[in-house]
C-alpha cells in the first residue's frame, strides 16, 4: 500500500468512526437494558424501519425509470432535468419539509385538491413521513442507478432489440439484470438516508409518537431533556441499521 | 490561552474605561454600569429574540465600547452548549429547569434571577375562522391542534395548563419548539396551537393569540445569570443588571412578557 493512499485513508476512517466511539464511550451501559425497555422506543424503531423501507420502495418504483430516462434518452434540457433531480440533495431538509407543506399541505398547491377529491391529507400522517423521506432519499438512488446505466454496455440492449425485443422487454430482461448491483447499492444508500431523515420529516409530518415520530425525531427530543436517553436511542438505531446494511451488502452488493 | 485573553480583555476594559471617564455628561440609565467594554456573548432562549435584539442595541448605546453578540436557540440546547464549555458571558433561559442544568453543573456565577414571565395563549389564524374561544374548544375532533413536545418548556407548560383546565386535547403533532408550532398555524396546517403570548404577538401579522384563564396555572419564568467562565465578567454583570432595569423591562413588556 503506498503511504500517499494509506495515510489519508486511515485518517478518513478514523474521522468517520470517531464519533461512534464518542457515543459508545458516553453510553450509560449500566442502565442500558431498562432504558431500552422503555415504551415508545420500539414503536419509534418500528416506524423508522417501516417508513424507510416504504420510502425506498417508492424511490425504486419512480427512481429507476427516471434514471433510465436520464441515461438512455436524448431530449432538450436533459442536463437541466438532471440538475433538478439533485435539488433535494442540496436543499436543507427543513426547507424541503416546508416546500412539501406548500405543495401537499392543507393550503398547498395540490393538498387542498387531494383533500377535497380523495379525502387524503398527508401532513401529520405516516404516509407523510414516507413522502418526506422519499423526497430526500430518492436522488441518491437515481444518481447511482444512472451511473450504473451509463457504465453498462448498451450494446446488449441493441442486441436484444435486433433479436426483436421491444424497449420495455429489453429493459426488463437485459438492462435491469445488468445493473442489478447498481440498483441494490442505490437502494441501500436511499434506505440509509431515509432512515436517518430528520428535518423534512419533522417539518412536513410533524412529531407524534407511534404515527410520525421516527427514531431521529425521538433522539432529537430526548436530547432536550436527557442526553443519556438520546445516546441509547442513537446507538440502537446505529446497531440496527449497521446489521441490516451489512446483511444486505453481503446478499446483494457483493454478489 | 484563555487566561491571557481574559487578561487582554480586562486591560482593554481598564484602558477604555479610563477614556470613557471624561464623557460623564451622558446620563446613564438604571443598571448600566459605567466603564464596561469589549465583546459580550449572550446565549438566550429563542423566544427572547426580538426583545433582546432591541435590548442589546440599547445596552450598546448606553455603554459605548461594548459589542453584544447574541446566540439564540432552544434553552435546553444552549444549556448543553454551556455545560460542554461554550465560551459565553450570559445565559438567559426560558425555564428554571434548563437554568438548573447550568447552575447544577457549577457553570453559573451566583444565583440566577427571574427577569420576566411568559404565558401561553391559543394561536389561531388571523380572524379566528374556527371561532375558538378557550381551551375546551380544542377538544373538537375536527380541529387540528399542535402542541410543543413535553421535553421543551412550551410543551411542559401546555401540559400543565391542560391538566389545570381538566381538558384532554389530542394534538396532531408535538413540535420541537414553540416557533415550529407557530409556523404550523401560519401555514394553515393546524387550526390552533398553544404558544407563548410573546410568540403570538411577534407573529401578529398572521396569527391571533387568544388568552385563556387556565394559562395562569402554567406561567413560565425566565431566569438570567452571568456565567462563571465569562471572558468578559464586568460586561456580563452589567448586562444582567441592565436586563432587569426599567428601560429593558419596558421592551420586554412591549413584546408581551410580564414583569416577575
UniProtKB/TrEMBL annotation, chain A:
Chain ranges of the ABC transmembrane type-1 domain: 45-248
Record bears the keyword Transmembrane helix: yes
GO molecular function, one term: molybdate ion transmembrane transporter activity
UniProt membrane topology term: Multi-pass membrane protein
UniProt keyword terms in alphabetical order: Cell membrane, Membrane, Molybdenum, Sulfate transport, Transmembrane, Transmembrane helix, Transport
Keyword check for Transmembrane helix: yes
Subcellular location: Cell membrane; Membrane
Similarity-based family: Belongs to the binding-protein-dependent transport system permease family. CysTW subfamily.
Described function: Part of the binding-protein-dependent transport system for molybdenum; probably responsible for the translocation of the substrate across the membrane. Part of the ABC transporter complex CysAWTP (TC 3.A.1.6.1) involved in sulfate/thiosulfate import. Probably responsible for the translocation of the substrate across the membrane.
PANTHER family: SULFATE TRANSPORT SYSTEM PERMEASE PROTEIN, SULFATE TRANSPORT SYSTEM PERMEASE PROTEIN CYST
Protein name stated in the entry: Molybdenum transport system permease
Automatic annotation (TrEMBL), chain B:
An example Gene Ontology molecular-function term: molybdate ion binding
Pfam families: SBP_bac_11
Matches recorded under InterPro entries: ModA, ModA/WtpA
Signal peptide interval: 1-20
Family assignment from sequence similarity: Belongs to the bacterial solute-binding protein ModA family.
GO terms, biological process: molybdate ion transport
Keywords recorded for this protein, A-Z: Metal-binding, Molybdenum, Signal
Record-linked NCBIfam families: modA
Organism: Paractinoplanes tereljensis
Domain of life: Bacteria
Name recorded for this polypeptide: Molybdate-binding protein
Residues reported to bind molybdate: 47, 75, 178, 196
Amino acid at each position: 500500500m503506498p503511504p500517499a493512499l494509506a495515510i489519508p485513508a486511515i485518517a478518513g476512517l478514523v474521522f468517520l468512526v470517531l464519533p461512534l466511539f464518542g457515543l459508545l464511550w458516553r453510553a450509560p451501559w449500566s442502565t442500558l437494558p431498562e432504558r431500552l425497555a422503555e415504551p415508545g422506543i420500539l414503536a419509534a424503531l418500528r416506524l423508522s424501519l417501516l417508513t424507510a423501507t416504504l420510502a425506498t420502495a417508492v424511490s425504486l418504483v419512480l427512481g429507476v425509470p427516471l434514471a433510465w430516462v436520464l441515461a438512455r434518452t436524448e431530449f432538450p434540457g436533459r442536463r437541466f432535468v438532471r440538475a433538478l433531480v439533485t435539488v433535494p440533495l442540496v436543499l436543507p431538509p427543513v426547507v424541503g419539509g416546508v416546500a412539501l407543506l406548500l405543495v401537499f399541505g392543507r393550503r398547498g398547491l395540490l393538498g387542498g385538491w387531494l383533500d377535497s377529491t380523495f379525502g387524503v391529507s398527508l401532513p401529520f400522517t405516516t404516509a407523510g413521513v414516507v413522502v418526506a423521506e422519499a423526497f430526500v432519499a430518492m436522488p441518491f438512488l437515481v444518481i447511482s442507478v444512472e451511473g450504473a446505466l451509463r457504465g453498462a454496455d448498451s450494446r446488449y440492449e441493441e442486441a436484444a432489440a435486433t433479436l426483436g425485443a421491444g424497449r420495455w422487454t429489453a429493459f426488463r430482461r437485459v438492462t435491469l439484470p445488468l445493473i442489478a448491483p447498481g440498483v441494490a447499492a442505490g437502494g441501500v444508500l436511499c434506505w440509509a438516508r431515509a432512515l436517518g431523515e430528520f428535518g423534512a420529516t419533522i417539518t412536513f409530518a410533524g412529531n407524534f409518537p407511534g404515527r410520525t415520530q421516527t427514531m431521529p425525531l425521538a433522539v432529537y427530543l430526548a436530547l432536550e431533556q436527557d442526553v443519556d436517553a438520546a445516546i441509547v436511542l442513537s446507538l440502537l438505531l446505529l446497531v440496527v441499521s449497521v446489521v441490516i446494511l451489512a446483511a444486505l451488502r453481503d446478499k446483494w452488493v457483493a454478489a | 490561552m484563555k487566561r491571557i485573553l481574559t487578561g487582554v480583555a480586562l486591560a482593554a476594559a481598564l484602558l477604555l474605561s479610563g477614556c470613557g471617564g471624561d464623557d460623564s455628561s451622558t446620563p446613564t440609565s438604571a443598571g448600566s454600569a459605567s466603564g464596561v467594554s469589549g465583546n459580550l456573548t449572550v446565549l438566550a432562549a429563542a423566544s427572547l429574540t426580538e426583545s433582546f435584539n432591541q435590548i442589546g442595541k440599547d445596552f450598546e448605546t448606553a455603554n459605548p465600547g461594548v459589542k453584544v453578540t447574541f446566540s439564540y436557540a432552544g434553552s435546553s440546547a444552549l444549556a448543553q452548549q454551556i455545560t460542554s464549555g461554550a465560551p459565553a458571558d450570559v445565559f438567559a433561559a426560558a425555564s428554571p429547569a434548563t437554568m438548573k442544568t447550568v447552575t447544577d453543573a457549577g457553570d453559573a456565577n451566583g444565583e440566577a434571577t427571574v427577569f420576566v414571565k411568559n404565558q401561553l395563549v391559543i394561536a389561531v389564524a388571523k380572524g379566528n375562522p374556527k371561532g375558538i374561544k378557550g381551551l375546551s374548544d380544542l377538544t373538537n375532533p375536527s380541529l387540528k391542534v399542535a402542541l410543543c413536545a413535553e421535553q421543551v418548556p412550551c410543551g411542559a407548560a401546555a401540559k400543565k395548563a391542560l391538566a389545570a383546565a381538566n381538558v384532554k386535547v389530542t394534538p396532531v403533532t408535538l413540535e420541537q419548539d414553540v416557533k415550529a408550532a407557530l409556523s404550523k398555524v401560519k401555514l394553515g396546517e393546524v387550526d390552533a396551537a398553544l404558544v407563548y403570548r410573546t410568540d403570538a404577538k411577534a407573529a401578529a401579522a398572521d396569527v391571533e393569540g387568544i388568552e385563556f384563564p387556565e394559562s395562569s396555572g402554567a406561567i413560565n419564568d425566565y431566569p438570567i445569570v452571568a456565567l462563571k467562565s465569562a471572558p468578559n465578567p464586568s460586561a456580563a454583570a452589567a448586562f444582567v443588571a441592565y436586563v432587569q432595569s426599567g428601560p429593558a423591562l419596558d421592551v420586554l413588556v412591549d413584546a408581551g412578557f410580564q414583569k416577575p
